[in-house]
């Protein structure tokens, strides 16, 4: 699969404009190569890259190309820094909610040393100073009911697990954002060097991309590890297998089950036999032996409502297949649970 298609299939739709504009940079290079012979032939009728005229032309191309790359890099670094800051704030809030449960229900000992009731020392997360996690003034609205009455702990735990699960998904998407953009820069700079027969792209990558914040930062990976640890220890009582089953995000690309494919093939075969038989029966049994017309149309009317449901599911399966083939990530666009959803084959099987 070409990287351009892979990028479109795996990017987060809400962040679409914040990814590297790989296709634009690729078209910029291809246009430069396509225009080069015209300009060269007008001058010395020679397309040797060592020719001074050619070399000057491609130096101008480089200036424009690397300027575009620089703008893309600034955009990506800025966006990544904003999302990382947001992730750190959300992580602090989630830790506060965990600490709140410890203080309110006393089922787990507080993880921070307390000086006085309702006070604790500040903590540092990945080099960023965070506010105290055990301040009694912090009482999330979802943990209160009526006039400050506490909800049942089991419901609180369920909501808290869901919040951690959604936050973990955000971190995975941000980590994927880092990887996709770095891969995009590597691919486009390699293409630059190949088309222009130079190594300036590789040098630019070493000087700018390999040292870029969005690539060198390990904060997201550390946050993922911290979330896993907290979820396992605090919310699943040390059961790692159960915790990771809830947290783990499978690949967004759909993988079909061989068993589902086999069953779908059988059902399609049955339909291919059934539909002609229905048509034949309608034609042959239009009248009974006594010559009285059969009321088969009335019988078909009984199946109109269930047929609409069947048709809707079938067309949904066809749509999902079309989106998957075209590289459209409908799972993220329609905010479907990436851990638990139906593939197009499962829809068609239904």
UniProtKB/TrEMBL annotation:
<feature type="transmembrane region" description="Helical">
    <location>
        <begin position="264"/>
        <end position="285"/>
    </location>
</feature>
<dbReference type="Pfam" id="PF03105">
    <property type="entry name" value="SPX"/>
</dbReference>
<keyword id="KW-1133">Transmembrane helix</keyword>
<protein>
    <recommendedName>
        <fullName>SPX domain-containing protein</fullName>
    </recommendedName>
</protein>
<dbReference type="Pfam" id="PF03124">
    <property type="entry name" value="EXS"/>
</dbReference>
<comment type="similarity">
    <text>Belongs to the SYG1 (TC 2.A.94) family.</text>
</comment>
<dbReference type="InterPro" id="IPR004342">
    <property type="entry name" value="EXS_C"/>
</dbReference>
<dbReference type="GO" id="GO:0000822">
    <property type="term" value="F:inositol hexakisphosphate binding"/>
</dbReference>
<dbReference type="GO" id="GO:0005886">
    <property type="term" value="C:plasma membrane"/>
</dbReference>
<dbReference type="InterPro" id="IPR004331">
    <property type="entry name" value="SPX_dom"/>
</dbReference>
<dbReference type="GO" id="GO:0005794">
    <property type="term" value="C:Golgi apparatus"/>
</dbReference>
<feature type="transmembrane region" description="Helical">
    <location>
        <begin position="306"/>
        <end position="324"/>
    </location>
</feature>
<feature type="domain" description="SPX">
    <location>
        <begin position="1"/>
        <end position="206"/>
    </location>
</feature>
<keyword id="KW-0472">Membrane</keyword>
<dbReference type="GO" id="GO:0006817">
    <property type="term" value="P:phosphate ion transport"/>
</dbReference>
<keyword id="KW-0812">Transmembrane</keyword>
<dbReference type="GO" id="GO:0016036">
    <property type="term" value="P:cellular response to phosphate starvation"/>
</dbReference>
